[in-house]
Amino acid sequence: MLELKNITLHYGQSQILHGVNMVAEKGKITCLLGVNGVGKTSLLKAIAGVHNHSGGQYLLDGAEKKAASAHHLAKAGVGYVPQGRDIFPLMTVRENMEIGFACLDKSERTLPEEMFELFPVLKEMQNRRGGDLSGGQQQQLAIARALITKPKLLLLDEPTEGIQPNIIQQIGRVISFLNDQGQMAILLVEQYFEFAYQLADHIYSMRRGEIILDGKKSELKKAAVLETLKV
Ligand SMILES: Nc1ncnc2c1ncn2[C@@H]1O[C@H](COP(=O)(O)OP(=O)(O)OP(=O)(O)O)[C@@H](O)[C@H]1O
């Protein structure tokens, strides 16, 4: 589904990613771990087309994506749940979800009932403003908005950040459920180690813009993964 070969990324003169290789497969949860500031969000931004990579190859379903816009990539099947959620505070919950319609044909532009089954709170609050929701509710809204685009690849940037434990559990169950459907590749960036470790099929760990560990969870020792996360 997703294949990155030797990806580099710059902000102006400053190089942030130094040759990242990564694969995320359909029906699998791939986790990218790393302490603050190593480049995890920058990598997701490159995959989502928010800030394009400067070198290397980015392949989606075998097709190279070079300098592609966020809109093109969303239409091509990349669903992005950004860090901080980026909910529009003055728009209603329903309107926030409907933003995802921009990627769909006119005939497909209805809110699927399953979305409200996954996130019942969004049904109750669909006419409230996005800014009135708690952090956890906003996170659920951000995931729902990405799912409405019917992604083949779902990018989640620290979905547990600043969220209370019961909602974290709920989000974990939704991620597992989506994965069990086998229809998408999920790439999860997390700093909450136990949450990510529990969900992961494949783990990457990053330091200073480079992948320093890569393997199937079943073949990696937990202590070895934790070792890569020491500051
Ligand atoms: N727009 C930008 N312009 C310049 N530098 C940036 C920009 N965005 C991020 N950086 C820098 O790039 C580096 C990687 O940041 P990034 O947000 O990708 O890391 P991260 O691993 O996601 O960190 P965190 O876990 O804190 O979100 C940091 O040194 C950061 O200061």
From TrEMBL:
Domain annotation ABC transporter: ranges: 2-231
InterPro entries (alphabetical): AAA+_ATPase, ABC_transporter-like_ATP-bd, ABC_transptr_urea_ATP-bd_UrtE, BCAA_Transport_ATP-bd_LivF, P-loop_NTPase
Keywords: Amino-acid transport, ATP-binding, Nucleotide-binding, Transport
Pfam families (alphabetical): ABC_tran
Superkingdom per UniProt: Bacteria
PANTHER family cross-referenced by the UniProt entry: HIGH-AFFINITY BRANCHED-CHAIN AMINO ACID TRANSPORT ATP-BINDING PROTEIN, HIGH-AFFINITY BRANCHED-CHAIN AMINO ACID TRANSPORT ATP-BINDING PROTEIN LIVF
Family statement drawn from the similarity comment of this UniProt entry: Belongs to the ABC transporter superfamily.
Name under which the protein is recorded: Urea ABC transporter ATP-binding subunit UrtE
Source organism per UniProt: Maritalea mediterranea
Lineage: Bacteria, Pseudomonadati, Pseudomonadota, Alphaproteobacteria, Hyphomicrobiales
